[in-house]
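the two lines:
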Amino acid sequence: MAGLIEVKDLKKEYKMGKISVHALNGVDIDIQAGDFVAIMGPSGSGKSTLMHILGCLDSPTKGQYTLNKEEVSNMRKGKLASIRNKEIGFVFQTFNLLPHLNVQKNVELPLMYGGFSKKKRTAMARKVLNEVGLGDRLKHKPSELSGGQRQRVAIARAIVNNPAIILADEPTGNLDTNSGNDILSIFSELHAKGNTIIIVTHDPAVAKRANKIINIVDGLIQDGDIT
Amino acid sequence: MAISLKESLIVGFSDFWSRKIRSLVTIVGIVLGTMSIIVVLSLVKGINKQTMAWMMERGGLSKISVYRNWNYDNPLKLRDFFTWKELSLIRSLVPEAKYFNPQERQWTRFSYKGEEYRSSVYGVLPDFTKIEEWDADKGRFISEFDVNQSNDVIVIGSEIKKELFGNKDPIGEFITVHGRRLQVIGIMRHRFMENKGNIGNDNGLAYLNRRAFVPLTTMIHKGTGEDNIGSFIVKAQNAESAPDLREHLEAIILNLRRGEPVFLVESAQEEAEQMAKNQQTFQMVFFMISIISLLVGGIVIANIMLATIQERTREIGIRITVGARRRDIFIQFLVQTVLVTFIGGILGVVVGLSILDIVSKFINIDLIAGIEMIFIALAVSAGVGFFSGIIPAIVASKLNPVEALRYE
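prediction for all of em together
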C-alpha cells in the first residue's frame, strides 16, 4: 500500500549571510493514511522546518516529497496554495486566528479561499464548530474566548475542509494541562474517525497518544518507529 | 478553485471598514487633490467663457482693427494716420470686407442749457452699428446722407443723455460741442455686461455709454478741421475669413507706408486664438499642480499601506496557510487602496463643487463644473490609488508564509 506521505532524502539549506545552515540533512519519512504521528526533537532540530515542508509552506532544497501520490517538491506556488487549502489543516501553538473576525468567519476562511458559496460555508463551519463543542460561540471574537476554546476554533478551521492530513505544531504548548488534555482528546477522536494527524511536539505526554514517533536531531531521523 | 474577485472585494472592503479612522485620514489627501482639480478646471473654464462673452460683446470674432503701432518709432517720419482719401482707397481694395468703419476720437465737453459733461466724441460711418452690433434705440443713427452732407448731428450714449437731459427727451434738441451746435438725432442702446458682469459688480461695458457719435466727415471738416484718422475697424464676412482679410489689409497698408510697420492690423479671431492658447497653458500649469498634490497624497497612502501590511504580516501568513494565493492577497490590499482613493475622489468632487459654488458667488462669475471634469478628477484619483496601492500589494503578496507566521 502506497503511503499518504512519502519523503525521500529531504534536505533544506538556509543561507545566513555566507554561512549555510542545514536544517534538514536527508530525511526519509513514510506516513500511511490514518496514522497519528508525533515528530519529536529539541529546539533547533529541524522539526519545524520539516513541518513547514510537509505543510507546503516551504519547499525543500533537495529530495522528494510525495503527498497523495502527487510530487509536491517542485510544484508551482498557485498549486501549493490549493494543496494547503484542500489537503492540509494547520493547528498552531499560538492558535493564529484572525482577531477581527468572529469564530464562524475564522472557520470559514479556508472555505472562502476554496471558493465555496456563502451558504455552504456557513453550514460547514457550523457543523465543525458543533463537533468541537463551540456551537454556541459562533459570533464571539477570539479575544472573548479562553485559550482552550481558541485552539478548538483553530482545530475546527483545520478540519472544516476535510483535509488529508492535520498538521499541529505544539498545539498544547500555550495551554494549561486540563485544556491541553481536552485538545489532545479531540485529536484522538479525529484519529479514531480515520483522520491522519501529525503533531510536532517535545512533550512526551503528547507523543504517548501517537501510534508512530519520529525523533529528529540535527536534521536527521534518529531511530525507527515506536508503536 | 480559488477565491473569486467578488470575495476579494468583500474582504478588502471589510478591512477598509474595520479601520475607519485610518481610512478617513488617508482619504483627506485625496479629497484635497481631487477638489483642487475640479475647482481649478472649472475656474479656468469659467474665466474663458467670460472672456469669450466679453469678446463677443465687443463685436465678435470677425472684427479686424487697424491702429497706430506705438512700438514703432517711425524714423522715416511716415504719416502715422490715414486721410479720408486714403481710407476710401483702402475700402475699395478690400471688397471682401463686409463692413468698414474708420473712427476718430476726440476728448471734449458737451453742454446743454448750463449742464456740462466731459467725455469722448467719435467720428464714425454708418457701418459702425454693424461692426459694433450696437445701434440707436431711440431716434436713429448716422446715415450715409449725414456723412455726405457733413450734417451737424450727434447720437449720444445713455450716460450722456442722463447727465445732460435727465428724464427729458433729447431728440431734436441741440447740444454744444467745441462751440458748434449739433442736433441730437438718437440715443444709443444702453450697454451692460450679460452673465452678471465682470469681477465685482461693475458693469464691464459702462464706458461705452459715455460715448457720443458724429458723422466722420462732420468731425473732419467742421470739428477739428484735421483730416487725420488714427484707426479703423473692418468686419469680415465671418470669423473664418477674418485671418485672410487681416493679411490682405496688412499688405495694403504696408504698401501705403513703404513697407514699414506704422500700423498694427489685428484680428479678434487670432487674438482669441492666442488667448485660448495662453489659457491652455494656464490651465495646464494648475492641472499639474493638482496632480502633484494628488501624487503626494498617493505617496502618503502607499506609505500607510506599507505600514499596515507590516502590522498585518501575521494575518497574511495565516491567510496563506489556509490557502490564499498570492493573487488573493494582492487583490485584498489593492482593493483597500483603490477604495480609499475612490471614496476620497468622490468626496473631493462633492467638496470641490460646493467650493465652486461659493467662489462663483464671490467673484460673480458663473462657474459650472462639466461632467468631463468630474470624470477626469475621479479617474485621476482612482489612478493614483491604483499606482500607490500596487507596490504595497505586491509586497504583501510576496511575503514568505513561514516568516510571516513567525512575525510578532
